[in-house]
Amino acid sequence: MGGYDWSYFDQEENSMASVQAETIPVSELVGKRKGPTVNSDTSIELKFEEEPISYQVNTWDSAGNITGSFKDVVLDGQSGRTIYEVVATWERGTGHYFFPLTIE
After folding, report:
1. Are 83 and 26 within 8 A, CB to CB?
2. Percent helix, strand, coil in the chain (nearest 5)?
3. For the chain, how big is the Rg over CA atoms in Å?
4. Which of 25, 50, 68, 82 is deepest in the core (most CB within 10 A)?
5. Is residue 31 within 8 Å of residue 83, measured between CB atoms?
6. Distance (Å, rounded) from C-alpha 93 to C-alpha 89?
7. Measured between alpha carbons, how far is 81 from 32 in angstroms, rounded to an integer?
8. Strand 80-90 vs strand 54-60: parallel, antiparallel, or unpaired?
9. Over residues 82-94, mean pLDDT
10. What residues contact 34, with CB distance under 8 A and at least 6 apart?
């Protein structure tokens, strides 16, 4: 998982509290890990323990630049090692998840 921010009601303090965490750059977070090998016809389904209100999927290049934004994991037009980021939003906050895929 990458960075996140989360809010909750602290009963002891009787107020809202927030937690924020930053992460290292994407290139360091994913490193040189080789992702599973898939082809462009592969269907990727995202499963969440708690379904988010919304999510967005970004693709990143090895230099740490976002190369696209999508509603789902899109494999068409990608080749080789591709880093995916899922930005999921819930009522209480947002989480960033990263994973590499090798697309043939």
Report:
1. yes
2. 5, 50, 45
3. 16
4. 82
5. no
6. 6
7. 10
8. antiparallel
9. 90
10. 81, 100, 102
Rounded Cα distance, 26 and 12, in Å: 36
Residue type at position 11: Q
Token match 């379904």: residue? 51
Residue 8 has pLDDT above 80, yes or no: no
Q: Which helix (H) or strand (E) holds 88?
A: strand 80-90
Closest by alpha carbon to 84, among 63, 45, 104, 58? Answer: 58
**Are the beta carbons of 57 and 69 closer than 8 angstroms?**
yes
Q: Is the pLDDT of residue 7 over 50?
A: yes
Distance, CA of 19 to CA of 40 (rounded, Å):
38
pLDDT per position as a tens digit, 30-83: 777 788 999 988 989 999 999 999 999 999 987 888 999 999 998 988 888 899
Rounded distance between C-alpha atoms, residue 27 and residue 48, angstroms: 24
